[in-house]
Records
---
Amino acid sequence: MSSSAATSVSPPLSSTMQAFIAAMPKTELHLHIEGTLEPELLFALAQRNQVALPYSSVEALRAAYAFSDLQSFLDLYYAGANVLRTEQDFFDMTAAYIERARADNVRHAEIFFDPQTHTERGIDIGIVFAGIARALRAAREQHGFSSAMIMSFLRHLSEEEAFATLEAALPLRSHYADLWHGIGLDSAERGNPPEKFERVFARCKELGFHLVAHAGEEGPPAYILGALDVLKVERIDHGVRSEEDPQLMQRLIQQQMPLTVCPLSNLKLCVVDEMAQHNLARLLRAGLAVTVNSDDPAYFGGYMNDNYLAVAGALALTRDELLQLARNGINASFLPADDKTRLSNELEQFAATQ
Ligand code: ADE
Ligand code: ZN
């Protein structure tokens, strides 16, 4: 990511700014549910399911979370998911995430899940859907926490395998019509361009799903163009490398194409060397529809508020800019218009009392 910023130490964030961020109503649009598996729960599930782990303790596992790039993270992330075996496991993981999100005043979350990570290990796709959905429905009923599920294809696998996953999932669609609204594309970006999934995304579009794809995290701006023009997505996940292509930047501004940016993820995966070099503020100030999200919070050291706190401090964001990020999140969500209006009103009321 290009930046002229020299190494800098950001001033500590005032306690009033911290309180502002904590209380602001927020949306989460880029969250991999398998990336919320905290080491403590991972160990508990390993014990429950009698899965051997190559780590002697929670601390030893956490200490292994030092990544040099996306692939070094994905290797641990897929290994960690091996403890998920039963519907109850998927429920427990999702319920734990919701609790963390609610504590951060997240009102609405759109959640990625990767069925192929589990079906490859012999887990029935129905178990994956059922456990996640049970937790999301309980949160809606008990707390008014709204959500959507985004089924993601693993881009290091073939398009044929993505089609097979879609075929396996479609019979479940009517049962999860209240939640399953989107299709995504994740995993190793470099060497797996969007064009590889043109046909399966076209089919998903015909089926009426919302479409999103990871692009421009590690991959070049051409992958963002491919996601837009070939996959026909309505949001770009990450997209931080768009800054390398001024024409693309103009297009993203003009179309108000949302980017679901994940600051702590970018730091932990060495997309940026320091948070002060992150381009979130430049993108926001240039007029892009950027949002703040947590990606894989159990692995990257922070949930929603930690991400906001990190960028607010390192990039000296103003209250108005923080509010704009939250507004962008509401606008970029898949929520129906009525719900968007309700959440926007809540945000503006919050702003007015500050
Ligand atoms: N899967 C989980 N987290 C991811 C990320 N940051 N990029 C691509 N694939 C992912
Ligand atoms: Zn992601």
---
Amino acid sequence: MSDEADANRVAGWFGDCYGRQPEGVWQAPGRANLIGEHTDYNQGWVLPFALDRGVLVAAACRHDGMLVIRSRQAPGEPATLPLATVAPGRVTGWAAYPAGVAWALREAGHPVGGASLAIDSTLPQGAGLSSSAALECAVALALTGLYGLDVPRPDLAILARRAENDFVGVPSGIMDQSASLLCQASHALLLDCRSGEGSAVPLEPAAAGLALLIVDTGARHALGDGRYALRRGECDQAAGELGVRCLRDVADAAAADGLADPVLRRRARHVVTENHRVTQAAAMLRAGGLAGAGALLSASHTSLRDDFEVSWPEADTTVDAALEAGALGARMMGGGLGGSGIALGPPAPDAVRAAIGGRYAPLGRPAPGVLAPPPPPRRRRLPGARRPCAGRGRGGSEALLGVDGQERSRTAERQLPHAAWPARRARQDRRRPAGKHGVRAPPADRRALDGGARRPPSGARLDAHPDYVALGLRAGAQSPR
Ligand code: GLA
């Protein structure tokens, strides 16, 4: 993303739509995942990193209690919703994602009021790059920024995920929202989805003489089509039959052999071995050995294809072509059955690109889109801190810098009272609706992250890091269109 140009573009569009300047522009990135697939909801480990593309939200407060949402990707009439009546099942389609975030924030006791939003995205939809999570996270940053609510980022990720699980009805894990909100420039995020403990792991392929290619295979995926939920159910069943709370608790893949059902055996084997691959890959990155992680990527693909059975023909073709052309490793990425792949390639990735394109031509398919993502640059926090709407903020808005680069103010961080969480979760649980895709998301106290501790241990707090990729980009009042 080119911060200023993108922020100015969406701010300009906001002006066209609403006839006024936005009070700020916030952005959250999409994510790729180096390794660690279908491990998050099994309370395991993941290693995602932020992309240089994402979702931007220009926003301003409204004092009529309405949430008005426009999206450049959904031209037409805006969604106009009285906030007080926004509830699961009452909003459908794309607007359910931003509306769900407002609902989740209010359910958690954050006094979010009306807002006008103008949303734009630089991410392809359905490509498995977390466009939905980026949308949720950008809206979460915008609403908390507008209303001066300093919700710690790990908590914001949980609330954004709650919007997706309980409002939209998609039973996803915590990886995507955590990646969008917690990833730092030039680093992957090693996240323990049980404890919530996260750490930034250096990821600078160019410095290692390598390149990471993200390949949009063109086959679209949808987490809500039931197959993702089916895999979740199979994992839960496998864990139950192995006598553990979840598959994270199985350390040795040989234990999975004890499962009578061959399908459950394969599912469990994937999760157990994938967890090992994630921690090995993180150790290699820390030791400056990114190249060595290539073999782990390829092993992950084999496991996802043969044991977890979520690969798809275009992904297999992409992986084969990339490896034949000299990539050090490649795999499908994300939930699967459509979406994108990732290849760890040599510094001149053109041969890998050409090889992949060459494999698609005989299939009568256009060459897939290939992103060679530079790790997102360190971003200066842009435009100036603003007063919370109507003086309702209890903390301060995200620290923002002016377009002139001057930091204007940074208000004290307000922490959610920890003691309030269990009671709040119990309340949320009682209200928890059935998921619309046939799976009831696990109870809230089991999925604070993915079933683990309710809050990250204090030593692992990542919510005040200056290098976040997701942040406020621009304050409308301070920059002409
Ligand atoms: C999707 C979900 C994530 C995760 C991945 C698979 O992206 O949103 O929570 O489960 O699939 O690793």
